[in-house]
Amino acid sequence: MILAAAFGGLIGGLKHAGMAGIGPDSVQGTVPTVLFATFQLTFAIITAALISGAIADRS
Questions:
Q1: Does 1 score more than 60 pLDDT?
Q2: How many angstroms separate the CA atoms of 13 and 47, rounded?
């Protein structure tokens, strides 16, 4: 993708959008890809909870 090449792979492409092509045996380095995605999603959930809590506190 042009966007992935323009940013040096920082943003990446849509190769694995929707977890396509990722199975239980997919490994990125020494960490299973599903475990890494779960780890990243915990921060996404925590961020959403912090923002909604801050909005609820202000109103």
A1: no
A2: 23
